[in-house]
Design goal:
Shape: globular
Strand content: 5-15%
Order of helices and strands: HHEHHHHHHHEEHEEEEEHHHHHEEH
Structural class: mainly alpha
Number of helices: 16
Number of strands: 10
Helix content: 40-55%
Strand order of the largest sheet: 1-3
CATH class of the largest domain: Mainly Alpha
Distance between the termini: 43 Å
């Protein structure tokens, strides 16, 4: 990175990095000086790379993962933890939660940094500057959507009328903004991504934004807001581009150990390298602990990570319905001296399985480059949208494409009818298996007005009385499906309202 990178000091969005029992302090790499930077294309490119770099900060990527994935039913916490991630998992949120604060701070830091660059590039820019303006619009739209999903209710509840998050635009002082509605934030993100797609003409590697990256995120956004026709439209644009392909066989089984540049299915990922510190502060440290380079024989707990979060019994049971399912490669039995282990803290009868989607990139135990968008999602976005549009066979066609890749039997309309299921039922079942541990499951259920039913051992049972009851049900209308606005923001901005 150049020495004249950009540094923005915004009091309301000051970055506060705390150290917890499971997280080490990491400082952002960006630095922007408004007086000397953003005066030529070289500085603008450097500043843009700095904004991408914020995504790699552990206080963003780790907290974002906990806030999204840990609401789901594919994981089980095997033991109590002092980290705030326990509250994310148990649905016992508090306004001073660490991960909500980290995520809010870092996401708005990206938005403010992107705004500076967007404002510095004229509307009639050409060439590299036009591309860079598009990339920063993409980054802003991505953060707007990510924020509103965490702090605003699902769009399909109230048609977006509920409180969302503040919208910050270029050239406008941050001040003390009020919360925009969920619809307004969705609209802002869509506008940013549509403009970004028009401006970006370079097919960059999947660690940077490009036209197809914007289209892919638009497909996800439209699906979440119930605009099924547009969800299909933008998924088709990504598929038709020919830039990506579904990995097959052994390549698919090793998907998450590949670097993004070597992965033809990844649309956008957050790149980590071997030179970066990937220790107990990495996402993978919560899922896996074992000998580097080995998925088949994980080592004892604590050797390379905490391994406090396991694949849930419910998820493993669903996966085991098809023993040949290649997605068994993304979990690994926890063994000691070849003996499958159980966690007596939550159940003496349930085998423990490590999650390996965030481990063993380039053979390093806790190294991974988290995937944000990939081609399989485009097919299953289409499938869900078509199921809701009444196009059951089209939905099933795309589900079967993913099932065939996984090496499991295809489905027929007659077969799912005989099983008393709908096309949407089987789409959501397939999304669960395909995107397990990728932060999708809770949103898949809640946008479809379906409850989260955890019927398996885990520390979520600590919420129940007596705690021998392992079932926890979270209704889609429950206040807990979203997180509190960070309390420090409420204290410093009288115009912000808190979530109930």
């Amino acid at each position: 990175m150049k020495t004249n990178q950009i540094k923005i000091y915004i009091v309301a969005l000051a970055l506060i990095f705390s150290v917890s029992s499971c997280k080490k302090e990491v400082k952002p790499s960006t630095a922007i000086d408004d007086e000397s930077a953003l005066t030529n294309p070289g500085d603008i490119e450097t500043a843009t790379i700095g904004t991408y770099a914020v995504l790699r900060n552990a206080t963003y990527v780790r907290s974002a993962h906990f806030l999204t994935e840990y609401q789901g039913d594919n994981i089980a916490q095997g033991q109590p933890s002092s980290d705030d991630l326990s509250r994310c998992y148990r649905y016992t949120h508090i306004p001073t939660g660490t991960h909500g604060a980290n995520f809010w701070q870092q996401a708005f830091y990206v938005i403010v940094a992107a705004n500076k660059i967007i404002a510095a590039i004229p509307e009639n820019a050409t060439g590299d500057l036009k591309q860079l303006k598009g990339e920063n619009l993409y980054l802003r739209g991505m953060m707007e959507f990510n924020l509103v999903r965490v702090f605003g209710r699902p769009y399909t509840q109230g048609n977006g009328a509920n409180p969302g998050v503040p919208i910050l635009k270029e050239g406008v002082a941050a001040g003390t903004p009020a919360r925009n509605t969920v619809k307004e934030v969705y609209d802002a993100a869509i506008a940013d991504l549509l403009k970004a797609a028009d401006l970006m003409t370079v097919a960059k590697q999947d660690i940077f934004a490009s036209k197809e990256v914007a289209y892919a995120l638009l497909s996800r956004i439209y699906l979440n807001m119930g605009d099924n026709a547009n969800a299909v439209k933008y998924a088709d644009l990504v598929i038709a581009s020919g830039r990506y392909k579904l990995l097959q066989g052994g390549e698919y089984q090793s998907y998450f150990t590949k670097t993004p540049e070597a992965n033809s299915e990844t649309i956008f990922a957050i790149r980590y390298t071997k030179t970066e510190d990937q220790d107990f502060g990495a996402i993978g440290s919560m899922y896996y602990s074992g000998t580097p380079g080995s998925l088949a024989t994980p080592g004892p707990q604590g050797s390379t990570g905490y391994a406090e979060i396991y694949a849930s019994q419910q998820y493993v049971t669903e996966l085991d319905k098809n023993p040949a399912d290649l997605r068994h490669s993304f979990i690994a039995p926890y063994k000691v001296n070849g003996v499958q282990q159980v966690n007596t803290k939550i159940s003496p009868n349930v085998p423990m399985y490590y999650v390996t989607k965030y481990s063993l990139q380039e053979g390093i135990a806790n190294l991974s480059s988290p995937v944000y968008l990939r081609l399989a999602e485009m097919y299953l976005n289409k499938a869900e949208a078509n199921a809701k549009l009444g196009n059951a066979q089209l939905a099933l066609d795309d589900v079967n494409l993913i099932r065939t890749r996984a090496g499991i039997p295809t489905l027929t309309l007659a077969g799912i009818a005989a099983a008393n299921k709908t096309a949407l039922d089987v789409v959501l079942e397939e999304r669960r298996l395909e995107f397990a541990f990728e932060g999708q499951r809770a949103y898949d259920l809640f946008r479809n007005n379906r409850p989260m039913i955890r019927n398996y051992p885990g520390t979520h049972a600590l919420n129940n009385t007596p705690n021998t009851n392992i079932t926890q049900t979270i209704l889609p209308t429950d206040a807990r499906v979203i997180f509190y606005v960070p309390q420090y923001e409420i204290d410093n901005n009288k115009n912000l309202t808190q979530n109930p």
